[in-house]
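User: Quick sanity check before I run a bigger batch. Here is a single chain. Can you write out its predicted 3D structure?
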Amino acid sequence: TLAGITPDEQRPGFAHFRVAPVPVTGVTGVAASYASPYGSVEVRWTSADSVFTLALTVPVNATATVVLPCPRKACAVSENPITVGSGRHTFTCAFAP
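Assistant: Done. Predicted structure follows.
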């Protein structure tokens, strides 16, 4: 749950999935992976010094919708989730737990 990896029920098998990390007080980072039929889904996030950083690996031929837990005024991605394709992606935004 903390990593925020969830399947898209409209596209089974992790062809598309959602990543919406859930930071909690006292936890400064999380690393998780899931062995999907398309390959490894990997999420790593840290929260330090009012900065939230998310590193995401999307397997080949898969896509992911990313929602960051940042204040709406400070982070356009929170307001408008984005979809990314396969590869490694990094997102950073201001964050106050």
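The chain has a mean pLDDT of 88.

User: Great, the batch can go ahead then.
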